[in-house]
User: Fold this.
Amino acid sequence: MSISNEIDIIKDELSLFDDVMDKYEYIIELGHSLASLSDNYKNDSYLLQGCQSQVWLHLYLKDALVHIEADGDALIVRGLLQVLIRIYSKHTPDEILQTELGELEKLGFSEIISSGRQNGIASMLKKIYSFAKSV
Assistant:
């Protein structure tokens, strides 16, 4: 499935909720389904700067695909990480780099989460795109 298709699916999932708080709760619920990151990666080397919460990102290339494992210390952050993993993990670096960041605006995060959390997403995306460029 393409990155754009996954974004559209998540947009459709969020559109099932009329209330912003219901969307927020849904993202938190997604956080419950995020697999825990191995303690081997919960250190300063993987700690992401620019987030309100502690966020650890482990990105690696396997079989020519970018894989993302992540964790955070807040459920809303874990939910946002789950969304980004669904969108970007298991795609080639070129697929990631060819996806305009503006496509994520379809998800309407600016209406759902605080500006501080939006800055955190920007930091996460910067790290994902930087990794895709480096491999």
User: Anything to note?
Assistant: The radius of gyration is 14 Å.
